Amino acid sequence: MELDKVHLFGASLGGFLAQKFTEVNAHCPRVVSLVLCNTFTDTSVFSYNDSAAVFWILPSLVLKKMLMGNFVTEKVDGEIVEAIDFMVERLESLTQPELASRLTMNCVNCYVQPQKICHLPITILDVFDEYALSNSVREEMYKCYPNAKLAHLKSGGNFPYLSRSAEVNLHLQIHLRQFEGTEYAASERTKL
């Protein structure tokens, strides 16, 4: 794509990986800004840290149950249920090695060094309803990035980018507005 610098949006594990990518490339900056949605800075918050090494030998069914245990469909609106259904459908298409690798990345002890990336423009997008991460994880994100802009949605569950896509897109546009008129503008330029 011939992009030398990018804006990254990451949710959950994707948000963690976006932070790690930015951190690892801090010596040769490739990321202009981050939008982090329902994510974390430290994998030690997950209860499977000690068993991450055995994910590779567990059958797909067991791995899927571990992942789907966080998807609650009671007491949520139809859009959140549809988002969960979509993600469960996607989950069904993953192979055992793909499931094991995702769970391993999520659960092997690792943390972000926010001091290497906190100078970037960052927006933290959170939902106020229940989702897989605890309030203490959310508060830790805020502490790691004290200068980040906060964007809150009243609800959205684990997948607000699906269940509340219009609201998430609005927050993305607001975040990217600060780059209008610069070489890092997110809109396509017409080539002459």
Derived from helix and strand composition plus strand pairing, the structural class reads alpha/beta
How many distinct helices? 7
Indicate the overall shape.
Answer: globular
Helix share bin:
25-40%
Radius of gyration, Cα only, in angstroms? 17 Å
Sheet of most strands: 4 strands, parallel
Oligomer: single chain
Low-confidence stretches: none
Please give the order of strands in the largest beta sheet.
1-2-3-4
Percent in strands: 5-15%
Distance between the termini: 19 Å
Number of strands: 4
| Helix and strand run | EHEHHHEHEHH
Q: What is the mean predicted local confidence, pLDDT?
A: 88
Topology of helices and strands:
Blueprint: E1 6-11, H1 13-24, E2 31-37, H2 60-68, H3 78-92, H4 96-107, E3 122-127, H5 135-144, E4 149-153, H6 160-163, H7 165-177
Parallel strand pairs: 1-2, 2-3, 3-4
Helix pairs in contact: 2-4
Question: What does this protein look like?
Answer:
- The protein is of the alpha/beta class.
- It has seven helices and four strands, in the order E-H-E-H-H-H-E-H-E-H-H.
- The protein has helices at residues 13-24, 60-68, 78-92, 96-107, 135-144, 160-163, 165-177; strands spanning 6-11, 31-37, 122-127, 149-153.
- It has a four-stranded parallel beta sheet with strand order 1-2-3-4, with helices on both faces.
- Strand 3 (122-127), helix 5 and strand 4 form a beta-alpha-beta unit.
- Helix 2 (60-68) crosses helix 4.
